[in-house]
Amino acid sequence: MDKEVLLYNYFSNSLTDEEQQLFDKLLENDVDFKKQFVFERDLKRAIKEKEKGNLKAKLQELESEIKQKTAPQNNFKIWVIAASFALLLSLGWFGYDNYFKVNYDNLYSNNFQPYPNTAYTITRSNSDDSLERQAFVAYETGNYQIAINNFEKINEPQKEYFAFYKAQSYLNLNNTKKAKTLFKKVITDNSQFVAESHWYLALIAIKEKDKDNAINYLEKLIENYDFNKEKAKALLDNLS
Description:
By secondary structure, the chain is an all-alpha fold. Helices cover 72% and strands 0% of the residues. It has helices at 3-11, 17-29, 31-68, 75-91, 96-99, 104-111, 131-140, 144-153, 162-172, 176-188, 194-207, 211-224, 229-239.
């Protein structure tokens, strides 16, 4: 695949899974490709910062003009200026991401995949009909509500990975509130899947268009863990 097309697709958030794998491989092994990527990434950031500065200056100019136009005969013009200011404000200080077209939906859909069952081996033995087995069978077949119900029926001491897979189930049901609570519990309890929980919390923040929290979780993941590190760096570049 043409490397320029690959870079274009990366910066437009439209890489397929296959292209993402090729992109990561080139970034790691092709010195010239990495130089071109760094150049284009830095250029993009510079343009963003310049446009942000221009927009903020325009907002401040309009605000100053509104304060100066106080005579009654200028009421209509004041209203027009105020409306323009409000519109720019909605695009500006409280919404730079929309203005600069960070496509959160694409970032989420291109990076989200349900985490595989690596905790419980499902065998064909008829002798094991435990609730845990039923929960993971439901999980693997995409019956996430049944998986949650079975996890919650287990009365014996909860295994440390239950919270993570319940969080996964809630996330696959688009219940991000409960998923977040459980992923945070995994991190707080310092159990298995801490790195993975940072990744999914970052994705939830992206899904909710919460840029600050997304960046926070991605930076912690990159700094402390190896899980999905390159993908996390790529996501961070898209959010910067």
